[in-house]
């Protein structure tokens, strides 16, 4: 099946009901300033990008992603034609047609992660030249990166160093993370392209190449507020579309197999709180998934609490 894009949902809906896979992540202040057809849902991606459903951002029109791949240079523009300084720092070029999705979140554990795929019509003949760029710019406590508000880019390869882009992931470089979808016979007039593409994705998606499914991840501080800005943009010109696909329900905090919830109350089921100085109460800890072996828990009174330790 071909990729099927769909627009019309609000950015808040997309983040909370499509991307989010963790009931303990508190989301707020969601925005997508480019709007229009530059952002939406997608379906039917398993046969090409190995992600069945999710959110897609395009530096143009998401409807241009529909297969078959019958063009080596599909181009469209966004309604807003925004630029972004952090994308320009990555690409080294003026940015245009930036599609942006950003929001605040509060993680309940000490890490976050989500799945993504980057695709582009600039594959493969413009490798080493024009470099449409994208980034996931994370800012907040403990993050000290070179981008706006001290953000760091977490759209990097598993080496934890190399930013993912057309010039860093392609047939000739880091090829284990690249899938060719070049229009047969494949080279598209450029010897840097895969000379023998299988053509196995040609019917399913328009983009001439894309990455394998990659994971964006970062260490964070539990219960603190963080901001993430997801951007894909044209570099220099406004032609040749690029897209970022974010996997459904893949945005999670920590290990989903290690969830701990609590209940506090008296033996009387109508009481749901424990009151200092009253009769004894219980605290029940419930763990989801994983093993109970060799687990230790330390319970501390928060320094902002009015509770008295030991009482």
Could you spell the SSE succession in H and E letters?
EHEEEHEEEEEEEEEEEE
Assembly category: single chain
How much of the sequence lies in strands comes to 25-35%
Number of strands: 16
Number of helices: 2
Outline the biggest β-sheet.
Answer: 9 strands, antiparallel
Radius of gyration: 23 Å
Which overall shape is indicated by the principal axes computed on the Cα atoms? elongated
Distance between the termini: 63 Å
Round the mean pLDDT to the nearest integer and report it. Answer: 82
Low-confidence stretches: none
Helix content: under 10%
Structural class comes to mainly beta
How would you describe this protein?
The structure is a single chain. The protein has 311 residues and is mainly β. The chain contains 2 helices and 16 strands. The N and C termini lie far apart (63 Å).
List the helices and strands and how they pair.
Elements: E1 4-6, H1 11-19, E2 26-31, E3 39-43, E4 54-58, H2 85-91, E5 95-106, E6 111-120, E7 133-139, E8 152-153, E9 178-180, E10 209-211, E11 214-219, E12 226-235, E13 242-247, E14 252-253, E15 259-265, E16 282-288
Antiparallel strand pairs: 1-3, 2-5, 3-4, 4-13, 5-12, 6-10, 6-11, 6-13, 6-14, 7-8, 7-12, 9-10, 15-16
């Amino acid at each position: 099946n071909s990729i099927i894009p769909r627009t019309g949902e609000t950015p808040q809906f997309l983040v909370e009901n499509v991307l989010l896979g963790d009931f303990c992540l508190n989301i707020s202040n969601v925005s997508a300033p480019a709007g229009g057809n530059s952002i939406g849902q997608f379906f039917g991606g398993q046969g090409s990008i190995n992600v069945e459903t999710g959110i897609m951002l395009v530096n143009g029109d998401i409807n241009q992603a529909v297969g078959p791949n019958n063009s080596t240079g599909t181009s469209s523009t966004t309604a807003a034609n925004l630029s972004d300084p952090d994308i320009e720092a990555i690409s080294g070029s003026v940015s245009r047609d930036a599609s942006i999705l950003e929001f605040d979140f509060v993680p309940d554990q000490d890490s976050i992660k989500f799945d993504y795929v980057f695709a582009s019509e600039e594959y493969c003949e413009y490798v080493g030249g024009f470099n449409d760029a994208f980034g996931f710019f994370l800012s907040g406590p403990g993050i000290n990166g070179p981008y706006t508000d001290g953000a760091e880019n977490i759209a990097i390869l598993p080496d934890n160093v190399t930013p993912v882009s057309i010039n860093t992931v392609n047939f000739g470089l880091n090829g284990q993370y690249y899938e060719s979808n070049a229009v047969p016979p494949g080279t598209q007039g450029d010897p840097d392209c895969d000379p023998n593409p299988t053509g196995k994705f040609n019917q399913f998606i328009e983009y001439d190449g894309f990455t394998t499914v990659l994971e964006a991840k970062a260490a964070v501080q539990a219960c603190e507020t963080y901001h993430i800005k997801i951007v894909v943009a044209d570099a220099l010109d406004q032609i040749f579309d690029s897209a970022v696909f974010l996997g459904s329900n893949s945005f999670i905090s920590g290990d989903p197999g290690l969830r701990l919830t609590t209940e506090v109350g008296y033996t009387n089921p109508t009481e749901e709180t424990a009151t200092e100085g009253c009769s004894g109460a219980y605290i029940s800890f419930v763990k989801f998934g994983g093993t109970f072996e060799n687990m230790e828990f330390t319970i501390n009174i928060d320094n902002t609490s009015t509770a008295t330790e030991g009482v």
